[in-house]
Amino acid sequence: MTVSIDPKTFLLSKQLPNLSYSSTTHRFDETWEAPLSTLLGLGRAAGADFVEFFLERANYISCLAEDDQITSISPRLSTGAGVRVFKGKADCYVSTNDLSFQGLKSALEKALGIMALHLPAPNSYVPEINLELLRDYATKKGKDSWLGECSSMREMGDVLLAANGKLKQTATHIQSRRAAYFRDWQEVLVASSDGTFARDIRLTQSVGYNLLCADGANRSSIGQRVGDTSNPGFLKTWDYAATAEDVSESAGKMLYADYVESGTYPIIMANKFGGVIFHEACGHLLETTQIERNTTPFVDMKGQKIAHESLTAWDEGLSGNAFGTIDMDDEGMPAQRTLLIENGILKNFIADRAGSIRTGHPRTGSGRRNNYAYAAASRMRNTYIAPGEHKVEDLFNSIEKGIYCKKMGGGSVGATGQFNFSVDEAYLIENGKITKPLKGATLIGEAKEIMNKISMCSADLGLAAGFCGSVSGSIYVTVGQPHIKVDSITVGGR
Predict the structure, then answer these.
(1) 284: closest CA among 340, 339, 332, 228?
(2) I want to staple 442 with a disulfide (CB 3.0 to 4.6 A). Which of 45, 267, 282, 492 is the partner?
(3) In this structure, are 307 and 454 located in the same domain?
(4) CA proximity to 56, closest of 372, 306, 366
(5) Which of 234, 255, 276 is where one domain is finished?
């Protein structure tokens, strides 16, 4: 960017309305340093303790195939920015889709006004914030070409129709076949008054099936989704034939399954998406947003036992191509690995900047948001129970009568960890063996209770793509675990 005043002179507040910057509109790069450093200095001169700008460009498209037709193609483009202002432990956030210097300045002034801060007097000096050399993860890792390398709309449609065709070949008693895909490309730039100046490009893609089968009064519905980051050719290489066979097999077994009898059982939960219960019932309770609200039972338990000694759990942003993998969070902090629980002992919480300021827990590179309309908040990334030392058959052999929960469905979680989750695919375990399919099972429990009943973990860690909604919108996350044994849990049924 080119500044219209002599860079050797000190900038006065009264000169701000006359400043003019010209910026690159097709990307975020070093040319954004000059106006952002000026605006950050203005915020500090007004009395803010900390100021942060978040800039975003997004290119999103989704495609849906129902049976043998493409029924929806939905593209979306957006550009915008948000500014966050802190004074003490209080903060506010203002967003705008005007990325001009005056547009960003107007958003900053609104935020300052909300915090009862006032612009400096006309003859006051406005210090420019000395930003670090741009940390450009996008350029460093060759991400600038990703968008152009993704599948075209025609290819999206061709792949989804072929996938639905394979589902038609492998399943029986079909009522409906759906294959859905989306691609979310995002370029972000973060600049803040502590000197942070960082850029990244994210590419998130997901594709999956939903199959509904019916035969008289018997019905089954099975879905399966896979996701990826950082691979423009993801859709091209999707093995839809293998996915179709897996979904069709599960739907066929569940179509004529018996209803589960309600009661208390030992259960085995499968790896991959089985980790959604840990994510929902425990992971959220370890975010500093819950500590701020005093809605987590673990608020004062750091360093104490909160789970069975067999359980170790992580949250991290580093696993290759996993759905929640990021090179930096939405506050510009590099991704890292955070040990949440070690052998049952609570080690760390998941913290963003605001959470760290208000709770004292260190930041973990977990400040995340859906888009520029939201302030960042403490959010999970790739969250999973670590693998154990047991073989899967060891878990089954330890159960005389119980339930194998192979595929989890939807559910709900209360503010302090009470949960109920449906099981889309379940089987009866008798004397260590799977004997028959079951449907209608719902797992009911409370986080503190179930965490102490996870007594065995196998070595087969598996990760699955997921979506997480919270105060900063819906974000992409990974859930996961090995096969685990829960000694007892309430199972709702008939």
Answers:
(1) 340
(2) 492
(3) yes
(4) 372
(5) 255
Instruction: Give the residue among 459, 308, 461, 309 at the shortest CA–CA distance from 395.
Output: 459
pLDDT tens for 428-457 read 999 999 999 999 999 999 988 999 999 999
Asked if residue 218 is part of any domain, the answer here is yes
What sign for the dihedral angle of Cα 462, 464, 470, 473?
positive
79 shares a domain with 225: no
For residue 125, report the phi and psi dihedrals to the nearest 5 degrees: -75, 140
- Helix or strand run (H / E) with residue 37: helix 33-45
Same domain, 329 and 392: yes
Residue pair 465/226 in contact by the 8 Å Cβ criterion: yes
CA distance 379 to 290: 11
Q: Which residue has the tokens 């960003």?
A: 104
Mind listing the pLDDT tens digit for each residue in 472-487? 999 999 999 999 999 9
Burial of 393 (0-12, 13-18, 19+ CB in 10 A): exposed
Q: Length of the chain, please? A: 494
Structural Rg of the chain based on CA atoms: 25
Q: Residue 294: CB partners within 8 Å, gap ≥ 6? A: none
Determine if the pTM surpasses 0.90.
yes
Where is the domain boundary, 125, 140, 155? 140
Are 334 and 317 found together in one domain?
yes
Query: Which contiguous run of DSSP H or E holds residue 342?
Result: strand 337-342
**Residue 299: Cβ-neighbour burial (10 angstroms; 0-12, 13-18, 19+):** middle
- The amino acid that residue 20 corresponds to is S
In a domain, 194, yes or no: no
